[in-house]
Amino acid sequence: MNKKLARIRRSKKTRYILKRLHATRLVVYRSSKHIYAQIINHANKVLVSASTLEKDIKTKVNYSGNKYSAEVIGTIIAHRANQYGIKKISFDRSGFKYHGRIKALAEAARKNGLIF
Asked: May I ask the CATH architecture of the domain 3-111?
């Protein structure tokens, strides 16, 4: 099994459990150049999103594929969720290891008010 298929398999297991629990989840996806975060409710409707492709975020970061940009995205997604009235979520890391950029985004979101 190659690396991508293993990640997809892990993400399917996590999403099945979260779907069964009817949890609002923070979904994170990372590519080599960018990082994306979305808060999705149990009916698969996107409530809040943030990514390094947005113009105002591009001005804050020099390179969008590092830990600093992940921290910026975590902070922004937490502030947008608080404005929408979302406090408690489940963290869906899409099969990625809880390490590096994924960990930086999660810790920044926790610092700014999200509970998971």
From this structure: 2-Layer Sandwich (3.30)
